[in-house]
Amino acid sequence: MPAWSLRRRMMLMFCAVVGILLAACFAGFYVLLSREVYHQLDQQLLEAARPVIADLLTDPSNEKDVDELNLPGEYFELFDSSGHALQRSRNLQAGTLDLGPVAFKAQTTAFGTLEGRGHGRLRLAAIPFQFGREPAVLAVAVSTRPADHVLETFRGIILLILPLSLLLTAGVSAWYVGKSLTPIATFTRHAENMAGRVSGFPQPVLWHPLPVKTPHDELSRLAETFNQLFERVASALGQLRQFVSDASHELRTPLSVLQGETELLLSEPRTPQQYQEALSVMDGELKQLSRIVEGLFTLAMADAGQLRLDHEPVYLNEVLEGSCAMLRPLAEAKHMVIQRDLREDFPYLGDEAFLRQLFLIFLENAIKYSPPQTTVKVEMEQKDGTLQARFQDQGIGIPSEHLAHIFKRFYRAGQPGASEPKAEETRSGGLGLAIADAITRAMGGWIDCRSEPGTGSTFTVHLPLHR
Description:
Layout: H1 6-58, E1 74-80, E2 85-88, H2 101-105, E3 110-116, E4 120-131, E5 134-143, H3 145-199, H4 218-267, H5 272-303, E6 312-315, H6 316-333, E7 337-341, E8 347-350, H7 352-368, E9 375-383, E10 386-392, H8 400-403, H9 432-442, E11 446-452, E12 456-464
């Protein structure tokens, strides 16, 4: 047997629950109505018996009071304490009101229903009273035909309304369940579309946001979650596609140089000096490849949340001072000055190796993209609960439209007049700012950048004192 769809199961369950509730309600209504109808009959019997009993008590010697009664639809019979009939109304046949021995022993009024001979079903009341000096019982009966007609009409209404109610419930539930499950079907189509586009990687992943009709509805919140998920998947795949493209482009140049130098060396015998020059070029390109691979590994660990940082006591000013000392020869080669304001001690708990790499990236960029005979200012201060390391250069600057993208991998603003650094000057293989951003985020901090084209750039690293 094939599995039923969720829509059909929900509709059947809804109809079953509503059907059971309706049947229980109608049954309860029928029982209450039946009790009320027969209660009204019992009250009618007592009202009919009251004047007869009063007449008998007024004149006990008159033995024909009940015999003379001939009321349509009402039947009377008087019994003594032993159950013998003393009197009966004209419209009643003998033996019709068979009370049984229990009625004569009862001390209170007893009610019951019996099949009257030739009179149909009768509702009977046996009322004990003192007739003269002897106890007696007056039996009063009326036909149950009006009450049975009311109950039969109500049963017919129930049998008509219940199926119609179930059909209406089925229609409403089918419409409501279908409407409720429409967003889920939309989610499924979007997910299938996303899966198809992901399988077609590296084509761009396009998606359309799911509709959010009711902000506080469960399905709408699910739609918002799916929208966020799809957006992140599309963004991640887009970044991955761009990253693969950029990485392949960055790796192609050193690999092409290595292949060219190797083919050149193997084409014919060379002098020792030529071999040395070629090996020097190959060594530079291999270092470049190594830096790119190390940078990619660092970023991959950061993306996976597995960038392990030590928490050791260090002095940030000393780490920054050491980084400046390492790049002083590079600055002097361009007749540049690194102006430092690091006289105050700034204790910190962090990873000294990653902190040094972080500072070297900004110092290296400041030197690379600044013209000769300029100054790079480096200072550190404690402000707003953070330690701020600031790097200010007098370089070419970054246009405002590129500031939002400078921390992307392999992104270059393409500044006019910018000189590309030599391979031996590049420590991060085009991934410097991306690595710096990953390290800073792993330490719970962030990076600010202010830049004006032609004037220079200022990068500020914010490291929280308490993480």
